Amino acid sequence: MKSLLRVFCLLLPVLLNTPADRAASPASFSRFPRLTVWAWQRPELLEFLDPNQVGVAYLDQTLYVRDYVKAEPRVQPLRVPFGTRVIAVVRIEMPAGYSSASEENKAKIVAALLLSARRGGVSALQVDFDAVKSQRAFYRDVLVHLRQQMPPRMPLSITALASWCAYDNWIADLPVDEAVPMLFRMGRERGLFDRRGPAAVIREPLCSSSLGLSTDEPWPAETKGKRLYVFHGRSWTEQTLTNVFTRVNQ
Fold first, then answer.
1. Do 181 and 167 meet the contact criterion of CB atoms below 8 Å apart?
2. What is the distance, to the nearest Å, from the Cα of residue 21 to the centroid of all Cα atoms in its chain?
3. What pLDDT sits at residue 6?
4. Number of domains in the chain
């Protein structure tokens, strides 16, 4: 573990020296590339990508929430070309049966999220949390306090279960700039989206501008005009990215 941490610390300046363009006003993703690749907790050496065509949303840390808040930082190397639009992603892990958090723990979570948002070179923040119904009030409080303290011009994104975008409008007034419908690993909701397609099913405006997809599952027929976040189960390669562009342009 220590050796991995050393490697990441050595490579981190390459990531953090990428310029952050915060000129968009109001905060939005309109100036980000159409395609963004998720770089999860694995070595990702992405010097081959074109910053004008591809952004990177990298897992910066994972927060484990119980009666305590434990932050697990990224320990894998990440390298991106100069000029890449970088989105820091924070994953929140909270058991479905755990529905409350103290104000102290909420404050700790917000502080951890702000740490990721304020890293040099980071252009946006994305929160990844599969909140069950009993956790929604907690999640809302966290996002409200986070938005109040984030850089005002920095876009804020969340990932969204497909149901949140289709027939469950609880996210409508969240203080975020986008909610990315996760159209993979969907379980029983897959049939609804396969039959009618996202354009017919997604009703929530926050979910209307982007889609979350995976390289190992079918994509919806209509992706035109959407910003695409793409997950890959292994480290990205130049060939894998080329394959993604082929699917995007079909």
1. no
2. 18
3. 35
4. 1
User: Domain span at residue 87?
Assistant: 2-22+31-248
| Res 39: pLDDT | 98
- Tell me the C-alpha distance between 184 and 231, whole Å: 9
Q: What is the SS3 string spanning 111-139?
A: HHHHHHHCCCCEEEEEEECCCCHHHHHHH
Q: Is 30 exposed, middle or buried (0-12, 13-18, 19+ CB in 10 A)?
A: exposed
One DSSP character per residue, 16-29 reads HTS------SSS-S
What does the pLDDT read at residue 196? 54
pTM (predicted TM-score): 0.88
CATH number at residue 102: 3.20.20.80
For residues 236 and 37, the answer to whether their CB atoms sit within 8 Å is: yes
**Alpha helices, H only, the chain:** 2-16, 103-117, 136-149, 162-166, 190-196, 198-201, 238-248
Secondary structure (DSSP) of 139-168: HHHHHHHHHHHS-TTS-EEEEE-HHHHHT-
Interval 221-231: pLDDT, tens: 888 899 999 99
Tell me 187's DSSP state.
G
Residues of the chain where predicted confidence (pLDDT) is lower than 50: 1-26
State whether residue 59 is helix, strand or coil.
strand
